Amino acid sequence: MDQDQYGADDRERLVAEPPKRVDAPERTAFERDRARVVHAAASRRLAAKTQVHGPQVDDFVRNRLTHSLEVAQVARDLARALGGDPDLPETAALAHDLGHPPFGHNGERALAEFAEGCGGFEGNAQTLRLLTRLEAKTFDEAGRSVGLNLTRATLDACIKYPWPLERASAPSGSHADGSPRLVVKFGVYADDRPVFDWVRRGLGHERQCLEAQVMDLADDVAYSVHDVEDGIVAGRIDLTRLDTEALWPTVRRWYLPSADDDLLDATLAGLRGVGTWPGSPYDHSRRSLAALKNLTSDLIGRFCGEVQQATFAASDGPFRRYDAGLVVPERTRLEIAVLKGIAAHYVMEAEERVALLARQREMVTELAETLLERGPDALDPAFADDWKDAADDAARRRVVVDQVASLTDASAALRHSALVG
Asked: For the domain 3-199, what is the CATH superfamily, name and number?
């Protein structure tokens, strides 16, 4: 899609920027947004944050950064196949996990409990806060940080849950990393509401824009396929020997509560019909690894191709913002859920992970409480400045949440060791 089809409102920034130097490479507004996210310090920190397993566990398994890169590739390819702009959903995919704290959704749960007194915590709401406040690049005339100063269309594409805490539904099910969904899903904290309202100006609904829908689906597709791949290489999953009698209760408990055995059997049969589905166990040889890579490629192509066809059948476009919506066929939804259920059953519910998750939550909570007690002398300089500017106890608690959320798994453990012991 020609980016000229996006209007001035779509390309508007919180702070107007002068034209770039005439000798600088010519880039569109959305290409510039993508570059800003790629070069952000928060993006680099994703390499040391948990996806499913901690980044120190194995050289093969995904961390938050490699996962985000894979989501970005899927999002870009799907958007291009739809004839839409590829830069917007790719940037949203690169940014979608920036707000995650150390230890993934498990750390998110601990911070949400700690932040009950200051408006809660949610990884996606933290992403918006980071992009528009915490990641330093641009300041407004009053001297306030506006973060990376991204365009309205890019920020809207990054908003996965376009509603505040008070309009959020009760959580249910489980995350891909095995932790239960106990955190309420919302997209903006109360003190970030002005920028959220600026992004969503003129919209009288809580729908995701198309680019956010593409990012959201790409995230689902990527981790449904890649978590299974990681589990196979780790020796936990053998796709030639799935115990459906034990597997289907997990799938129902986590993802498809109303699906009966016949539906799940049929869904698995459809997946097994993919030409590269393995006929023999993974043996760590190059040929076996190549076959596994071909399977993941075919599954991603299958899911995205089906979504593309269904979306084209439902609309003539144009496929941008709120002119059209993404259509996910029921078969695609079921197959993605079954793959996630396979990873859940054989990887996420392993007993050794349960004790580890509990210890991680304890560490995050103890660190946050200690920082709240110690105040600015225990905070990084930028957050110490925020503490000094905070108007009340709730605002100071929010500063501590921002500090802890910014840490990687390793830096959180080190900070905990130094401050708590």
From this structure: Hypothetical protein af1432 (1.10.3210.10)
